[in-house]
Write a structure and sequence with these properties.
This protein is α/β, with parallel strands linked by helices and about 190 residues long. It contains seven helices and six strands; from the N terminus they run αβββαβααβααβα. It folds into two domains: about 5-85, 2-Layer Sandwich (Double Stranded RNA Binding Domain); about 105-185, Winged helix-like DNA-binding domain superfamily/Winged helix DNA-binding domain (Arc Repressor Mutant, subunit A, Orthogonal Bundle). The strands form two sheets. It has a four-stranded mixed β-sheet. A two-stranded parallel sheet has the order 5-6.
């Protein structure tokens, strides 16, 4: 097995990105809610994954966006920076372009409405279904939330059950509670990006 020196590897990745030879750039970021895989295309942020398994994730990204998937930390710096500001309580809205290819119809309508749920507020699955014109589709909304490709930025943690209970979250209910507590101004997440 040949090992490529780190400096050569970095130059290769940088050159590939600069030459637009990459369909998806990704990196894994350490955050207060655990490691997150961050992935971007030339159109924008396309994936945030909790507890990432890079091999599985890159395979899925290649199927959706193109086979040239490369770990390129510099390409996700803007996403990383905005997430850091969010976790530090200094950002309430994200200013990132999004790449939601493959999300059409009702699913896209729900994600678009989800993006409008303000920081520190919650809505319900049923409310989102009603807003999208299908009041009986609360379960479908739950499925869309569970498959949200860009959690935190598209704030599915702000969607709760009609009874006010925390139900379902792709990142786990503990993370959902942490994110809601952060936005409510309750004890801050332990942030250490060293």
């Amino acid at each position: 097995m040949t090992v490529v020196p780190n400096a050569l590897d970095r130059r290769f990745r940088q050159a590939a990105a600069e030459a637009c030879l990459v369909d998806v750039s990704f990196d894994v970021a350490d955050t207060p809610v655990g490691p997150l895989l961050l992935a971007v295309t030339e159109r924008g942020l396309c994936r945030i994954s909790f507890d990432p398994e890079p091999d599985r994730e890159t395979e899925q990204l290649a199927r959706l966006f193109g086979v040239r998937v490369l770990k390129a930390p510099r390409e996700v710096d803007r996403v990383r920076r905005e997430l850091e500001e969010y976790f530090e309580g200094r950002r309430r809205e994200f200013d990132l372009p999004l790449d939601l290819r493959g999300r059409e119809g009702f699913s896209r309508a729900i994600l678009d409405r989800l993006a409008q749920v303000p920081y520190g507020e919650v809505t319900t699955y049923k409310s989102l279904a009603v807003e999208a014109g299908n009041p009986r589709a609360a379960r479908a909304v739950g499925t869309i939330m569970n498959r949200n490709p860009i959690p935190i930025v598209l704030p599915c943690h702000r969607v709760i059950g009609s009874s006010g209970s925390l139900v379902g979250y792709g990142g786990g209910l503990e993370r959902k509670r942490l994110l809601l507590d952060l936005e409510a101004g309750r004890p801050a997440l332990d942030v250490d990006y060293s």
